[in-house]
Amino acid sequence: MALPNINPTTTPSWKKLQEHFEAVKNDHMKDLFAQDKNRADKFTIKWNDFYVDFSKNRITEETFKYLLELANDVKLKEAIESQFLGDIINQTEGRAVLHTALRAPETAVVNVDGKNVIPEVYEVKRKIEAFTNEVTSGARKGYTGKPFTDIVNIGIGGSDLGPAMVVDALQYYKNELTTHFVSNVDGDHVNEVIKKLNPETTLFVIVSKTFTTQETISNANTIKTWFLQSASQDDIAKHFVAVSTNIEAVKNFGIDTNNIFPMWNWVGGRFSLWSAVGLSISLAVGYKNYESLLSGANKMDDHFKNEDFKNNIPVVLALISVWYNNFFKAESEAVIAYSQYLNQFATYLQQGIMESNGKSVDRNGNPIDYETGTLIWGEPGTNSQHAFFQLIHQGTKLIPADFIGFTKSLHGNQEHQDKLISNFLAQTEALLNGKTEAQVVAEDTTEAIVPFKIFKGNKPTNTIFINKLTPESLGKLIAMYEHKIFVQGIIWNIFSYDQFGVELGKQLANKILQEFNNNVKNEHDSSTASLLNFYKKMA
Questions:
Q1: Does residue 174 have an active-site annotation?
Q2: Which of 88, 170, 260, 504 is the most exposed place for a label (fewest CB within 10 A)?
Q3: Is 506 considered catalytic here?
Q4: Burial class (CB in 10 A: 0-12, 13-18, 19+), 42
Q5: Is the pLDDT of residue 2 over 90?
Q6: DSSP string of 328-356?
Q7: C-beta separation of 157 from 210 below 8 A
Q8: Cβ atoms 206, 154 nearer than 8 A
């Protein structure tokens, strides 16, 4: 079953939202709270270890009603069913979208082309578990008989961002192995990593579905050359493994076929950390923790699939995002995690959200005349408070923000945690209320300075409180944003799971590279031609 092809702007709910927006666009949230003492309770979802307060948004009960009607008008329920059933919803590439199957229970049945893929998924999981246990126990050794001390993940895009973010986020749970990530084709990147390594005790995980990705294979070959300075060709089999579908190319590289972990075309790169692409995660934190990560994601899948939209966390967050993007014309969203462990979380979400929903053609193949994807950015709090919060508080742009915090710290330093969470709560309160002229004057501020100290407030935030950062809660959090992406794509009537926009630059890069290697001359615009000539002279 194909996805519905409904232009959202033609729906009755969209027209209601347009009229409603004109009526409420200048309302201040302070007044909404003053008018309804139960507002926070009405706009809070409590689920498992998640507490999601979306009351600090420029919405009323009427807004929420129309947004829920929009979800029904675009047939969101039917679209969710299509995804989980394994229908070909990535129609432009002729594929199902089933990263959810990778974290489904073993008793589940998920059919692709009439075949249940769950047994195959669990076969790969068992292989990941066995391999992880061999490495972490020291049973699997390097070419000189020493156990492994370091893991290097070689990949780019989804083959890097997901595993790198999760390993960073779960470093509290790490084992004795040290994990490194090589992604950029910049030779300085790979060489900075190499100089920290001992070839005798390092395991390399090459992640490339086709085993042809320029950046990944370039880095893999550079590392292989470095490795062979002290080891033999036969030793490659002990130190290199691959996550790929191109068995022949992997064998030609020198990797033992027993050390190849398969991938599936129904898993998009930016959603692939749940597959064998997550091998580096399993190695870094142990298979049990990796399994907990998947379990958490599955719990969010069930919540998303079964919960009424009004209490459905990913659906509510997506609807609010559409409200700002399409009616307030807010172009960006900030993601502020009050945990240094989530240092790479916003970077990870940039790919997931911007690569998925950065589209200007709808599912009918027609140009779109309304806004689609949002710009995603952010840094951990409290660092971000001393960086870009000035613009969110007093700038001219409306920037909705997700605040993510944990009620318990991992190391148990309560003094630090109280200071962290006091900032977490204070910032959303400040963004809500602002600071009036009367309040500024009451502080004995010099008259000439008064205008500069006024905060208008009325800046929207979602507050996502989670009990503790565990592998399971992280799995829930990642899956929450994945489903938010899906809902937005359905509402905007776009295909979220292709990324043709990534390919043009790659094609042109290969043409330019030929000019360096073969003295080929291609036609370029005058700017590119001048830059190319400048580089050739200076290189």
A1: no
A2: 504
A3: yes
A4: exposed
A5: no
A6: I---EEEEEES-GGGTTHHHHHHIIIIIH
A7: no
A8: yes
Please say if 415 is a catalytic residue.
Answer: no
Annotated catalytic residue: which of 200, 291, 355, 472?
355
- CB contact at 8 A, 376 and 353: yes
Written as one letter, the residue type at 357 is N
Question: Residues 25, 146, 506, 536: which is the catalytic one?
Answer: 506
CA 438, chain centre distance (Å): 42
Choose, from 42, 146, 196, 386, the residue flagged as catalytic: 386
Tell me the two tokens of residue 489: 């794509």
- Token duo for residue 291: 């399994």
CA atoms of 481 and 50, how far apart (whole Å): 14
CA-based nearest residue to 99, from 529, 497, 376: 497
Q: What tokens appear for 407 in the block?
A: 């009620």
Three-state SS at 412:
coil
Collapsing DSSP states into helix, strand and coil, what is residue 221? Answer: helix
| Integer Cα distance of 432 and 440 in angstroms | 17
DSSP run (H or E) holding 181: strand 178-182
> In this structure, what are the phi and psi dihedrals at residue 87, rounded to the nearest 5 degrees?
-65, 160
What is the rounded CA–CA span in Å between residue 345 and residue 477? Answer: 10
Question: DSSP letters along 9-61, please?
Answer: GGSHHHHHHHHHHHHHTT--HHHHHHH-TTHHHHTEEEETTEEEE--SSS--H
pLDDT in tens, 457-500: 999 999 999 999 999 999 999 999 999 999 999 999 999 999 99
pLDDT at 408: 98
Q: CA separation (Å) from 166 to 357, 392, 472?
A: 23, 28, 12
Q: How far apart are CA 440 and CA 452, in angstroms?
A: 10
Whether the full predicted model's pTM is greater than 0.85, yes or no, is yes
Residue range 378-418, pLDDT digits in tens: 999 999 999 999 999 999 999 999 999 999 999 999 999 99
The average pLDDT across 417-427 equals 98
Which two three-digit tokens encode residue 387? 């960086």
- Could you give phi then psi for residue 184, rounded to 5 degrees? -65, 140
Cβ neighbors of 86 (< 8 A, separation 6 or more) are 96, 98, 101, 110, 111, 112, 117, 266
Please state whether 355 falls in left (phi above 0), alpha (psi between -120 and 50) or beta: alpha
Neighbouring CB atoms inside 10 A of 493's CB total 24
